[in-house]
Amino acid sequence: MPYIDEKREENSRNKNDVQNHSSSWDPDLLSSPNPISPDNENESVEIEHNLKTKIVHGEEDVTNIIKHAHLNCKNSLHIYCDKNGFSVLINTSIFKELFTVLRNNGVMIKIITEITVDNIEHCKQVIDLFNANIKYLDTVKGNFALLDDKTYLASPKLIGAKLMPELIYSNEKEVVEQNRYLFETLWKEAKPAEQKIREIQDGILPIETFIIDDPNKILSYARTQETTRIIENSNEIRKLLLHLVKNSKKEILIVYPSSKAVDLQKKIGTLDILLKKSQENISVKILSPTNVNLDKMIYLHQSLLTELELKNINIREISKQQELKPTVLMIDRKHVLALELKNDTSDTFEEATGLATYSTSDPTVLSYISIFESLWEQTDMSISLRMANEKLVRTEQMERDFINTAAHELRTPTQAIMGYAELDSEVFDDLLKNAKVVEDDDLRRIITHLQKHFDAISRNSTRLDDLISNLLDVSRIESSMNNSLSLHTEKLDLIKEIKESIKNQLDQKIKIKNIEINFINDSLDEQCWIYADRSRLNQIISNLIGNAIKFSNQNGRIDIMIKDNAANSNERHMDEINSFVKTKKSDIQKRNGRKKEMDEIFVNISDTGKGISTKIMPKLFEKFITDSDTGTGLGLYITRNLVEAHGGRIWAFNNNDGIGSTFIFSLPKMQYSISDNK
Prior knowledge:
Blueprint: H1 8-22, H2 41-50, E1 53-57, H3 59-71, E2 76-80, H4 85-91, H5 93-104, E3 108-113, H6 120-130, E4 133-136, E5 143-147, E6 151-155, E7 166-170, H7 173-189, E8 191-192, H8 193-202, E9 208-211, H9 218-224, E10 227-231, H10 234-246, E11 251-255, H11 259-267, H12 270-279, E12 283-288, H13 292-299, H14 307-310, E13 313-317, E14 327-331, E15 335-341, H15 349-352, E16 353-359, H16 362-433, H17 440-477, E17 490-493, H18 494-513, E18 516-520, E19 529-532, H19 534-551, E20 557-563, H20 574-591, E21 600-607, H21 635-645, E22 650-654, E23 661-668
Parallel strand pairs: 2-3, 3-4, 9-10, 11-12, 12-13, 18-20
Antiparallel strand pairs: 1-7, 2-5, 4-8, 5-6, 6-7, 10-16, 11-14, 14-15, 15-16, 17-19, 20-21, 21-23, 22-23
Helix pairs in contact: 1-3, 3-5, 4-5, 4-6, 10-12, 16-17, 17-21, 18-19, 19-21
């Protein structure tokens, strides 16, 4: 505590000076609104200007100085005192009265002190009685006060409810400024009294922050009390880091500020431990800039891990953190370890790592976790926005392509119809003008031309009608109205419907390409009864077999198989078909919420065409997806929705022999009525 240690003789003179001045003071200063009267104003001024820095001895002189200083305090009173300070304020009548006057005059009172079990009640009384703002520090030594940043008072020791036998007084600017700076510095470091009071009342162990010299004691300290510790030894930091990760029980959260930080962790084996912990069903979440070691940890081990194990490691990409330097690990929401990267050019963990902060304090741990979760949510939002934007771009591109394709598809048959209609108009005009002179041969020639024109017009009209129907179906599928794809179900023979659909709608296309149709129905009777909408069922069959014809080569082959189970068969592609059926039947039961196996019929259509390109396979049944130069890409999208409206599912895959592809769709057997769709 700064004060001027003067010689004994000067101390004696100072004491006499104060005694001389005090003889002119009003003995009842507390009851006077102005303790310095006009008669003794010059003497008071003399005290203020001449006293400077003095040590005052004796209870009477000390009392007079304290009264004079406090009653002339107009704005602020800042006190730094040890744990006995509250007892003096509450139990000494002069201080209690002086602080009451200060409170009534609106003086701001700030106190820094030590709060313990012994003085907590006095502390609460000071807050309540004097509206004081109190902060605490541990092991406070010494006592001083600053009044209006003009007067400095200090006492070496506070003794119970008694006034101090001596006092240091100063109004020198340098002394006051020095101690004002000291108080402000301590005030910033101190913590609110309410926090300490709550900890004492709730029996919470104190939270400490200090540098530990013996790293071996770190974990033993952490097991007994909440603590925050600074570790200087980088070798011990490495040991603690690996120990925490190895002994994690539930969750590991990590923030890597840079790719360099990840590389250093890789070298000491942290990433290998993280991979192992993930296989123990412990959740690992990492926020990091892009790093090849993290990519390897996920993708190079992917073939060795099960889906369950893989989902326990989640990595979100963040940009390199310029402001955030430490690597932060949060273990089981109980431990936080923050590692300072002091040298990002070093290739060794020990040389690159500076200080580390280790904490088991709940407020500290929860603060770090809150920051981590906020960053995690931001990355999720960023990913979602990016995916949505990419989907929007793809959708816009598909819609543009669809508009171009639809315009072309509409224009082609329309031009054909208009052209042939115009030709027919000319033929009819000539025929009507020369009806009497037309020879039989000319008439036959005209009729032949008209027949060809009629066929072209009919064919293109059908093409236009199909396109319009597809567009209407898409509109119904995506309509927000309930039952927009309503079905009129009835009892149908699936085998008969397939044969009639081929004969009535696809026969001409089959003949043009000389396609061999191989109908296999060994495991069923001649009839297979289902509940379905006849027109929609024919639409499904026509779309799928029509696609098989379209993508088959000349003289190709199409196998149509109907199965009610995945029984063994020597027929082509049955191994893969049986595998798909077995898996997808389980999916259907789960989707429909049925515990018992649902009776189904599976229709498999295999072709010898070019197969499905890997580019469109993942989105094969989406809108506007096509692997053809012609067509709108709506057929399979509509087919999937029609199958699902019947209560079935549809899948596709390329054949194992590399020739062609197989489409499978399922429909419920007759015992399962889809009355909801009637």
